[in-house]
Design goal:
With about 450 residues, this protein is of the alpha+beta class. About 25% of the residues lie in helices and about 25% in strands. It is built from 9 helices and 19 strands. Strands 11, 14, 15, 16, 17, 18 and 19 form a 7-stranded mixed sheet that branches. The protein has a 4-stranded antiparallel sheet with strand order 1-8-6-3, with no helix packed on it. Strand 12 and strand 13 form a beta hairpin. The protein is elongated and about 85 Å long.
Amino acid sequence: MAREFRLPDIGEGLTEAEIVRWLVAVGETVEADQPIVEVETDKAVVEIPSLYAGVVLSHGGTEGDVIEVGEVLVTIGEPGEAVAPTSDQTEPTVGDLPAPGPGPEPIVGTLSEEAETLIAPSRQDSELATSVKALPVVRKLARDHDIDLESIEGSGPTGRIMRQDVEAVIATLAEPVPGRAEEHAVHDVAVGAGHGVSDEHLGEAPVDEVPGPPPQPGAQPGEGRRQMSRLRRTIAANMAKSWSEIPHVTTFDDVDATRLLEVRSALGERHQTKIPLEALVIKAVVPALEEFPEFNASLDGDDLVYHATKDIGIAVDTPDGLLVAVIHDADARSVMDLAGEVRRLGEGARERSLAPDELTGQTFTVSNIGAVGGGHGTPIVPFGTVAILSVGTARLRPVVYDEDLAIAPVMPLSLSYDHRVIDGAVGRRFMALVLENLEEPALFLAG
């Protein structure tokens, strides 16, 4: 009996998803819990496993199609079983194909030439997945530029093909050929307004090489129109919602980062690893969130909802746009544990491989705009929270200690908060405690 598997809600507030790649073609068998399709949500590319075992009778859409939660994703049944076609069907189903003969040949051996042509690319992708190591977002990038992953030597662990490996091939394809006049456009990936990036992400390619928009009648050189990516549209909607509904106030200050940087260096030498600045900043912020719980809350109508755990978001600049990854239960973690999470989440965000719960649910956000040379800023409060702390680049500046002039690394801080919830005086007290902790890390490391 044919069974319909509908797109489930795989993330908080998910309403739709785009089909990236089918992992099992029409006519092929699938086991229960076997990944059957890759889909892209607003923030992540995820694999969805099948609920049923059987033969794939039809797909609910082709690659690039957007389907809503609750719509049919795939129909699974028995070999030779027919499935009733729908008006919006976009590819052949097993029910459309000739019935198998009496011999032992599998169903796919009886496909018509047209159906075989349509199904072959999906089958080839599935076979390729077994021989090439690459994350879904890397495979999609290669497909978008007609690049054979088997021709690329991966630079990642155990030969995994990384995004930069594919981008290097794209760059060679984009080089102008002598005698040709075509120009290749470069699309800059913008950083979400009001947010910054982790210093773990410096050195990554900040742009994607993509074909330029087609010329339009009467258009001047360089003009054109292109729809923003799904992620960029999500960023834009979230920024507009936060800015229009939250009355922002931003307070600025500077911190002498001498001791903070010394501790960071000492920890790095002790553990033979680079300590992300975010790990220390989060550790310094946690006591302030405990002292001023309204900063670790959310507004729900006329109610202020206080959260028991400190789930800290970290802004990550990725080639596809800004993502906020979430370190859950940050208050229960050590500095080294936080450092590992910052690195892991940063890599996962760049590869678009994080689970939905790793991209949602923050109660406070830290944004390290200093990683790209930023100073003071006016960060936008993520919707659903009430505050965000932005950290700039520490630069040597003259400072005065007990009427003596000295030179010290001074790090700018910018704290934006929801003025409906937090008054200016409370904002200054919160910032003062964060400054005190950052200037003497022993205060929060001993806790």
